[in-house]
Specification:
elongated, mainly alpha
Length: 97
């Protein structure tokens, strides 16, 4: 596969990019180099290589979820600028229509 002006124009339109003539020629050259590199990789025999699913063999160890009451309701409300006996008071943000 070769990259030409039409292909670059289509990709540029999809990416909402615009290129000057010199930049477009450089993009075509760079994209053709990338495709040549990928074609070179296709020459390798990878039939004995297992697909890579994870980058390493480590397993993420998570702690168990458990309910803990580290702070009481009174302590939480103590530093609030506005509150009543049970809840934080905040400005009204939703208006009824």
């Amino acid at each position: 596969m070769k990259i030409d002006n039409e292909t670059v124009d289509k990709i540029a339109h999809l990416a909402r990019l615009e290129f000057e003539n010199e930049a477009k020629e450089q993009i075509i050259k760079d994209m053709n180099n990338m495709l040549a590199f990928v074609e070179k990789l296709n020459e390798l025999d990878t039939s004995a290589v297992e697909p890579l699913i994870y980058m390493n063999e480590e397993v993420n160890i998570l702690r168990d979820d458990e309910v803990r009451h580290d702070i009481t309701q009174f302590e939480a409300l103590k530093n609030a600028p506005k509150h009543d006996s049970d809840y934080f008071k905040v400005p009204k943000v939703i208006e009824k229509q």
